[in-house]
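Thanks for the sequence, V.! I ran TetR/AcrR family transcriptional regulator right away. Repeating your input here for the record:
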Amino acid sequence: MSPSAEARPTSAARARLLGTATKIFYAEGIHSVGVDRITAEAQVTRATLYRHFSGKEELVLAYLDQADQGIRGQVGAAVGSAASAAGQVRAVARSIVDGIRSPGFRGCAFLNAVAEYSDPAHPVHQAVLAHRQWFLDTVTELLGRVGDGGSGLSADAAGRHLVMLRDGAMAAGCLFDPELVSETFLHGVEGLLREVSTAAPEEG
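Predicted structure:
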């Protein structure tokens, strides 16, 4: 058997472990789930898990990294779908409400995780902060390109405001009517765009 053929089942086992952990961590929380539950549902042994991950913490970090990469791809696709900066902000907002409206939505994976890891020095906490900083930087840059240099809301303030709107929508979206939450969030984003620049075009 070739080395590449030997690597395939190993890679498949890792993917199965991560997929199982992702489903359970997101739906039920992290601390409440042990490695025995994960290995049982992934149909692998504990030894297989420890061949791929040093322990549960590394598996949690892999779960968050996968979520981070997924959101970066989602935001990148949204930005690429519109021509103007205002349209790109609207597209990012629509991608967020698509998640809120999706079956099985349980809020923000990162906010959920950090609620279980309150120590700022913990690697999981740090991973959440890094993801949030990236998102803040991304929307702030987009909003900066919407602004016309006038006396409107600064891009920094608007970026922070958009992140807070997004956090509120993600928290409320799994507690209340997701359609109403989504509509309220999108309305708030439109208000931000008006604050940043009254010249923001109504497109895309």
